[in-house]
Design a protein that fits this description.
This protein is α+β, with helices and mostly antiparallel strands and 291 residues long. 44% of the residues lie in helices and 10% in strands. A 4-stranded antiparallel beta sheet has the order 1-2-4-3, with helices on both faces. Helix 4 crosses helix 8. The structure holds flavin mononucleotide.
Length: 291
Amino acid sequence: MKSDLDEAIMTQHTQPPTQHPEITHLLQERYGQDASYDIIDNPITRQILQHRSVRAFEATPLPDNLLTTLVTAAQAASSSSNLQSWSIVAITDKTHKDKLAVWANNQDFVRQAPLFLVWLADFSRAKHLTDKQPVPIDGTDYLESVILASIDTAIAAQNAALVAESLGLGVVYAGAIRSHINAIAEDLKLPPYVYPVFGMAIGYPSERVTTHIRPRLLQEAVLHNEYYDASAQHQAAETYNKVLDNFWKKQAIDHAVWTQHLVNRLGDVQKNNDARYALTETLRGLGFPLI
Ligand SMILES: Cc1cc2nc3c(=O)[nH]c(=O)nc-3n(C[C@H](O)[C@H](O)[C@H](O)COP(=O)(O)O)c2cc1C
């Protein structure tokens, strides 16, 4: 027997690719051009297509049950082998946020947002709960486990981000905290086998600042059929350079074109002495042997 959802999806598949004007508009914003992708329209795709990072917040207090809602959403995410290898530290205290803002490379949105979450890859819980076992618990000591816990943390965080956005809140990740992992680990009293993967600022978007959907590469740059094929990359990047340039110009922001941005962001990283690029050493210092 077909459910209502099955029926709805089948109807969407059999409909001619005339899209709802809102979807057409969202695709136009997302790709910065007429991208005639035929996508299935439902409240979740629409919600996701609306995403844009928000970096200016109102001081408006958040609903009392927001944090529990976000944690529930995060916990509903898939979890590698159900190890549930992540935790969150929720920070609302102004003085504490001020400290974190400095460690997030002084990004002011950390101060402004009423809620700042530090998302942790966490194997300390598994270690703690198994420390009396006769078997050595050494799976936690491999690079695989750091990757696993980091993946799970990101998946959980994105669930929370989408739910926050669906509630009219704005969200931005703060990977910059990885530049000051040791200071944050000490401040948050993190046990061994825990590291902060990224922060997330959450609040009502400032009414004084308009945020825009940031376009992405055309799908031919990221989607490969059957086998990896890089032949479309240069053309896609050239198109994207123009699209993103228009995006910055619309906002009167002087920004390097995207391929130059790749060079700026990834080139000669040691020159800035950013602790993010000494992560192996830092993680070992936090108790991950990384074998
Ligand atoms: C893991 C992660 C870390 C990020 N860290 C920062 C950050 O420290 N500061 C910042 O302004 N944006 C940060 N961002 C936001 C990205 O810059 C943003 O997602 C990207 O430019 C695309 O823009 P959009 O989110 O508006 O679509 C981060 C995003 C991710 C996924």
